[in-house]
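> call design_seq(struct)
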């Protein structure tokens, strides 16, 4: 084989290897109750919108693969978290080891915008400075009548905190796909492609394009998460045990003690992002 043929063969092999692997990344949605986290995910996954509000209990899990313009396949393992205060003590374990976080606020509610930066600070506390974060203002369909946070203000604040920013409408589907594609495109390439057991890793699609849609850590499927084919849509509730729910409730309703201290710590979050210009 001459050098030209060998070079061409090597290039084809490289392209094939790139297109046959999928980058898996854990992405968590955070934000206050009723800002529209579940509606955003439902619109992204199924292109539907439920007019009746149903709060998330604990956490829900979704999985979807995006094909990017640079020929990368990125499987987003999407974690939809509960916004109620009584579940807050469970959140750190969900955001730990995530590679991306979408923090949602309701642009018709200024308090949710303020709290968004507390969520951002908590993400960085648990996952470090390298995690990709996008600040998302939901409900632009109501912006002309009820907007309390301008796009300019939110963009300026996002820039100060070094996070991505976008406004969307889960109700109408505006910018929903673009939002997830922008987050996926910002995710880093892996340093190595061996193993594939970490939630933020590479998996090969050559073995029948199958695999657990909810593989966590060392290749073990999390409770309540079913296996699905490459590129499939998966949504299964992540069940919270009664004892865990009770523990979460106790941590926020107890007077004094650890629960009260945790609640006070959450209220005082702020740091560089929350403390300026609000």
């Amino acid at each position: 084989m001459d050098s030209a043929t060998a070079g061409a063969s090597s290039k084809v092999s490289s392209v094939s290897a790139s297109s046959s692997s999928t980058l898996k990344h854990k992405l968590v949605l955070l934000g206050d109750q009723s800002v529209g986290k579940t509606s955003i995910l439902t619109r992204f996954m199924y292109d539907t919108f439920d007019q009746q509000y149903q709060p998330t209990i604990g956490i829900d899990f979704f999985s979807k693969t995006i094909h990017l313009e640079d020929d990368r396949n990125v499987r987003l393992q999407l974690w939809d978290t509960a916004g109620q205060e009584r579940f807050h003590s469970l959140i750190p374990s969900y955001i730990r080891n995530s590679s991306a976080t979408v923090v949602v606020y309701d642009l018709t509610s200024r308090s949710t915008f303020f709290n968004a930066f507390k969520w951002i600070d908590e993400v960085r506390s648990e996952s470090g400075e390298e995690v990709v974060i996008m600040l998302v203002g939901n409900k632009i369909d109501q912006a002309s009548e009820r907007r309390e946070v301008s796009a300019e203000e939110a963009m300026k604040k996002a820039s100060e905190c070094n996070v991505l920013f976008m406004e969307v409408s889960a109700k109408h589907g505006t910018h929903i796909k673009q939002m997830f594609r922008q987050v996926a495109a910002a995710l880093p390439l892996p340093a190595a492609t061996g193993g594939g057991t970490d939630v933020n890793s590479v998996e090969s699609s050559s073995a029948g394009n199958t695999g657990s849609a909810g593989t966590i850590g060392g290749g073990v499927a999390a409770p309540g998460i079913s296996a699905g084919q490459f590129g499939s849509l998966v949504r299964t509730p992540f069940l919270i045990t009664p004892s865990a729910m009770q523990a979460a409730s106790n941590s926020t309703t107890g007077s004094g003690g650890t629960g009260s201290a945790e609640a006070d710590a959450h209220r005082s979050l702020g740091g560089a992002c929350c403390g300026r210009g609000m």
